[in-house]
Fold:
Amino acid sequence: MTRLPPGPGNALVTTLRSLRDPYGFPLETARRYGDPYSWPSFLGPMVVTGSPEGIRTLFTADPDTYSALGAELLGPILGESNLILLSGERHRAMRKLQLPPFHGARMRAYGQIILDAAEAHAARWQRGRPIPVHRTMQEISLQVILEAVLGLREPGRREAFKAAVLAVIAALKPSFMFIESLRRPLLGLSAWARFQRRRAHTFALFEEELRVRRASPEPREDILSLLLSARYEDGSALTDDELLTQMMNLIVAGHETTASALAWSFHHIHREPAVKARLVEELRGLPEPLDPEAVARLPYLEAVCSEALRLEPVAPLIGRTLRKGLTLQGFELPPGISVGISILQVHRRADLYPEPERFRPERFLERSYTPFEYLPFGGGARRCIGAAFALYEMKLVLAAILRKHDLRAASDKPVRVAVRNTTVGPRGEVELLHA
Ligand code: HEM
Structure:
């Protein structure tokens, strides 16, 4: 029989404890059991590593060693053609179609959209009142992703999509995601039925947008337009169903993640006066109006974003399922087992990041890290396709707001961390005040 590494035994207890303490409990588990350790989950047993050697083994293995984690269970909910659930050749082909809109030069088209959205939302903050930074970041990132992905510049239309997408996200419940028997309509009254209704409404909006887009052939820069003209190697286009699924996925994957990362950045910048002073000084050197490319090149701003993504990873654990056997740090893992990469754990290693709990952007100026030591966007064949977009957005939003608004922390209470849908972010609000 295969010997798996030790780890906590009970899936329910493990899940509940990590929902309550999504950073503390996995770190405690790693300390207790060593590396790698076994992690029982509703998706079956998983062997987790948070060491650079283990991560190197997993990221450099042949991509066909793996299939996407939870694809069978989540396909009916997130869409069978969803990039995050595809494996093998289908994953490669779909990823190839979706990468070009996210390449460097394309980013420029979104720079002004991001600066305008950040300035407009921050202009609504009232003096003397606590500023709800996390909520503002969610609004900015949703507006940006809707404009970038769907090209929705008309506010009324954007509002309709915004409401529809937020309603779908709110209706997505872990109960029916992980327990198939709960996917019952129950006369239209169940959580599952509500989710299906809201998804159908959002897809109807998308379909309408597709019709409009096909009827007007003017060239556009948004991701939907680029995907509409993209072709697989055999010359075929994405089907409508594939398009709708990818649109929804990009909007969901792209907005909450970036909003949480930005909220953490604002939080830490305003808890470390020396960091804020150095960052504001760097931003002061830029002429008005802000040139997005000049902002993106600022070294300290980049270090601040990197440090926020290190200390507070929004995806602390990523996984894949083994299609073939694999040796991980001396353990012979059989097909069918899942492997996990603890981004959180490697990002908190004191040998790589001295004083790992401290927010110290300078560490990214003092040395460089390998993709097996620093990986907020995952790695290997499934690395986040929106990484450059997210980092660009973080830099532009921070620059646009910190240049115009002198802010301070509203309290010195620690901000705790919470599971938010499929990612992890600040629990509740991150509040700041005008200085
Ligand atoms: C700070 C913001 C973000 C963070 C921290 C983040 C993090 C991640 C991580 C850790 C993964 C899994 C990688 C792996 O399994 O190796 C991932 C996958 C993905 N992300 Fe992001 N992400 C962010 C923003 C975005 C944005 C803005 C988009 C798109 C607009 C996006 C789209 C995707 C997609 C489509 C995948 C699946 C890739 C695949 O399976 O091939 N993400 N992201």
Q: What stands out?
A: The pocket of protoporphyrin IX containing FE is lined by residues 83-84, 95, 145, 249-250, 253-254, 257-258, 261, 314-315, 318, 376-380, 382-386, 389-390 (CB under 6 Å). The chain has one domain: 11-151+220-434.
